[in-house]
Design brief:
The chain is an alpha/beta fold. The protein is built from twelve helices and 18 strands. It folds into two domains: about 110 residues, NAD(P)-binding Rossmann-like Domain (Rossmann fold), CATH 3.40.50; about 180 residues, Dihydrodipicolinate Reductase, domain 2 (2-Layer Sandwich).
Amino acid sequence: MTSMKKIVVLGCGLVGRVMAEDLSKSHNVTSVDISSKNLDKLQASNITKKSLDVSDVKVLQNLIKDFDLVVGALPGFMGFETMKNVIKAKKNIVDISFYPEDPFKLDQLAKENNVTAVMDCGVAPGMGNIIFAHHDNLMKIHNYECLVGGLPKKREWPFEYQAVFSPIDVIEEYIRPARYVQNKSLVIKEALSDTELVEFDEIGTLESWNSDGLRTLIETMNHVPNMIEKTLRYPGCVEYLKVLRECGYFSYDPITINGNKVRPIDLTSKLLFPKWEMKEGDEDFTIMRIKISGLENDKKRLYKYTLLDRYQENTISMARTTGFTCTAVANLVLQNKFSKKGISPPEFLGSHFNEINEYLRERNVIYKVDKY
């Protein structure tokens, strides 16, 4: 058991809230958000709440100076700069913000400041990477495929989708070119391409499409010849998104309307957020299927991991599956079980798979594994 430490959680959205409450069972936790409304939703009475704008560097550095660990749960567009400023303050950080920038640009800075910084520490990227690296330590992998999605239990026209992340972070998935590896060559395709229908037990038919989910794996696992990640949605959703994208609604380039400059993506986010927002009583599920095949002890082997996690205990599944992966890793860092200096994507934690998996199981996040 870890001795009680001081942790600050930046961001108190749906995922940040779950992480703060989980960590508060064993540690002194302070939750920080610019919105006092978000902070008011915290259930645990032993969490200190602070309404602050951490995009202000001085505010951030003054805030974190007395903490043992920073946990990041901010929108992606704030993630990179925040991580950089936390590193400059010589504080360890475990983060889920999924920022678009190259995290390894901060590696040297983190090493110079003797900082352990774990990024992308959610479901996928996150636990998927940890599972991948765990098997990479035990076998020669030829193929890695990850299909993953977080979906509402109730399907509502037109998108049949709800988000626990900021709308701009979600839209990024629909516009960022998708990279995957085929026969050791990097392939770059348009996001939302190569749609396929896939069957899942208990759920039925879902639609998969190319998204840029491999991220750091392209660099860190470049000895694996075939790697792909695809996002899952209800069938038909992709067609609506393609129409919006083709019409320019996801563009960052400002347009002038009646003398006012507007970025289409800002307008789209504003319009879509009420439609995508999880409302009181809404339920969701997280589904992920990972296939890893190759040679183990000179024999052909296929491992299939399946996660089907549902809303439970008044907690949204995507927040549980993302948040508990992050808090598992936060505890490893606090216990000095993981102390690698520099930037660590989750695949650097492959040797800690069993501990992280057990932590998740204790919280009823169950990854079933089949071996062929």
